[in-house]
Amino acid sequence: MRDRQQILVAVGVAVGVAACTCMPPPTPNDPDVAIDAPVADAAVADAPVADAPDIDAAPDAAIDAPVVVPTDAPIDARDPTKTTCKTIKDTDPNAASKRYQIDPDGVGGKSPVEAYCDMTTDGGGWTVVFMASKTNYGEPDVIPYGIDVPTLLAEADETLIAFRQSDGPLLEKTSTWPVDWAIFPVPDDWRSASPFSTVKGVAQGMMVRVGGAQAVQRDVLFGRQSFANSICDGQWNADASSRWGWICIPGTTAPFYSAWANTTSDSDRCTGSDQHHGAHACLVTEPGMPNRHFSIAMR
Ligand SMILES: [Ca+2]
């Protein structure tokens, strides 16, 4: 009620101003024309309160409108060339492999994240979205990706699985470490959640490139259920409740990462897909060798 009284007072002032001969009549382009019209009506009829704006309302709105400043991104990440490791690499072919701030969905939305960019392997431009932070997960639960980048997961063309040192560099194949990296199209199941989320997963007939060799057609296996024969052959354990977990590519020297879903205290296994799952542990005991961290990268 008090507001209405104030408005009626304002209306009286406005009508008084409009009637005053000391001011020139408004021109057709004068913004006050539109404002004054409903005010005059309000004085003679019981117009809705909402139709009787303060004569200053329009200018105030323009002046006071908040300036929307995105707050989720450091200046560096607003650069559209830094949405992923691939855009960084495309912009600067000499960009080094290291951690960068990226923002796959641009300003707003998801916050920028710090990600390790592999700028070397197969031409580089890889955003590492998962790297094992333990040498023994030993739990049957879902292990998520390490960074929250749904836009990258949705739009990436390829995935790279590899073992890395804890600070990011890829462990290249050697005489004592006979395991390659592997590149294949992103399996559909990997776009919405990590492959550790799946119980029994198979991406069939993927064109896989292992260690830079020509592409071959192979199934990519991933899932939490245990497997039957201690090797990467695609045979799941008949006991559906038995947890062990594996990611591997039969018939290749691609990474074979397993035991990340078991409930025992065994170290997780980081070896090659052509080897017994226990050939190499992720926790390394040989002198001079770094621990092996399974990783998933996208580009
Ligand atoms: Ca964002």
Q: What percent of residues adopt helix (DSSP H or I)? A: 10-25%
Number of strands: 11
Bound ions, cofactors and other small molecules, one mention each: calcium ion
How would you sum up the global shape? globular
- Segments where pLDDT lies below 50 for 5+ residues? 1-63, 69-73
Let me know the average pLDDT: 79
Radius of gyration: 32 Å
User: Largest sheet, described in full?
Assistant: 11 strands, antiparallel
C-alpha termini separation: 62 Å
The number of domains is 2
**Helix/strand structural class:** alpha+beta
Topology order in helix (H) and strand (E) letters: HHHHEEEHEEHEEEEEE
Strand content: 15-25%
Number of helices: 6
Strand order of the largest sheet: 1-2-3-11-4-5-6-7-8-9-10
Fold and architecture overview:
With 299 residues, this protein is of the alpha+beta class. The protein has two domains: 2-64, no CATH class; 75-298. Helix content is 19%, strand content 23%. It has helices spanning 2-19, 32-44, 57-64, 85-91, 150-155, 189-192; strands at residues 98-102, 113-118, 126-131, 158-164, 182-185, 201-210, 216-225, 243-248, 255-258, 269-272, 293-298. An eleven-stranded antiparallel β-sheet has the order 1-2-3-11-4-5-6-7-8-9-10, with no helix packed on it. A hairpin with a 7-residue loop joins β2 and β3 (126-131). α1 crosses α2 (32-44). It is globular, with a radius of gyration of 32 Å. The relative contact order is 0.12. Residues 1-63 and 69-73 have low confidence and may be disordered. Bound molecules: calcium ion. Residues 72, 103, 105-111 line the site of calcium ion.
